[in-house]
Amino acid sequence: MSVQQASIPKVAVSPLELEDAKEPPLNLYKPKEPYTATIVSVERIVGPKAPGETCHIVIDHGGNVPYWEGQSYGVIPPGENPKKPGAPHNVRLYSIASTRYGDFFDGKTTTLCVRRAVYYDPVTGNEDPSKNGVCSNYLCDSKPGDKVKITGPSGKIMLLPEDDPNATHIMIATGTGVAPYRGYLRRMFMEDVPSFRFGGLAWLFLGVANTDSLLYDDEFTKYLKDYPDQFRYDKALSREQKNRNGGKMYVQDKIEEYSDEIFKLLDGGAHIYFCGLKGMMPGIQETLKRVADQRGENWEVKLAQLKKNKQWHVEVY
């Protein structure tokens, strides 16, 4: 760590007892008995030219629903399930976008990054509210003080492995899939956690439509300035950039651009994470397979090895 990096002040967090557990909290609240939390704030975090709306939603759980970075909360929207009259809606899972200490660093809140799911009729081109996403619209429309039913936390696959504080973490996201990485990066670069001093490399690839669609860009840009030796940040803006073949620039094109480095880092034990819409994975897998072929490697064998070594982490929805 350079002298410059050592002098950058970090934010004190509490309660540090949140570091004591040896295992992540899991399913403290279940769908039949959810926890009633309170909305603190709802903020639109994309610019006017972004297709669609994405909101940053802070929820007060009073310290009663602790979680670790990379886990998810379930949300049960109000109303009844149209497929099961009289029954509540099914749980919707959202990746948590904050560290265990939350955006106020006091261990009492969690943050969700939610894109409003809107349905447009393919024939008329008009919005059809009857087919809009029930939960995402409920969350994006909620107001400070509103109550929200949450379950969880759930998930182990995206937990940040901290046994080696000097490891390399390659994070690949499309859209709101950036949520868990915001948590990781705040833990690595923003928070003063005595038991976790990050000395490795974090490399974020974020794919969105355009500049106005970038999420948490100011936070990531600050880490780049403050920790140039430890953080890399590459953006794929599909409506603004072209890939080397003249087509739209997707996240897999950025991966291909840096494929030699990425493969070397994986061979050295780096962790690689994928989070976002499940449609992102086939294109990424194809790219990785093509790169492996060019390097004279068998991708299936390599992938099996990465999974066996617990270096491969995927959460898509």
Automatic annotation (TrEMBL):
- GO CC terms of this entry: chloroplast
The Swiss-Prot or TrEMBL record describes its family as follows: Belongs to the ferredoxin--NADP reductase type 1 family.
TM region positions: none
Give the primary localization class: plastid
Task: Provide the binding site for NADP(+).
Answer: 95, 115, 176, 238-239, 248, 276-277, 315
Describe the location of the FAD-binding FR-type domain by residue ranges. 32-160
What does this protein need as cofactor? FAD
Q: Where in the cell is it found?
A: Plastid, Chloroplast
Organism of derivation: Vitis rotundifolia (Muscadine grape)
This entry's Gene Ontology molecular function terms read: ferredoxin-NADP+ reductase activity; poly(U) RNA binding
Keywords from the UniProt entry? Chloroplast, Electron transport, FAD, Flavoprotein, NADP, Oxidoreductase, Photosynthesis, Plastid, Transit peptide, Transport
**Name of the protein in question:** Ferredoxin--NADP reductase, chloroplastic
Q: What is its EC number?
A: 1.18.1.2
A biological-process GO annotation: photosynthesis
Enzyme class of the recorded protein, top EC level? oxidoreductase
Domain of life of the native organism: Eukaryota
Q: Catalyses which reaction?
A: 2 reduced [2Fe-2S]-[ferredoxin] + NADP(+) + H(+) = 2 oxidized [2Fe-2S]-[ferredoxin] + NADPH
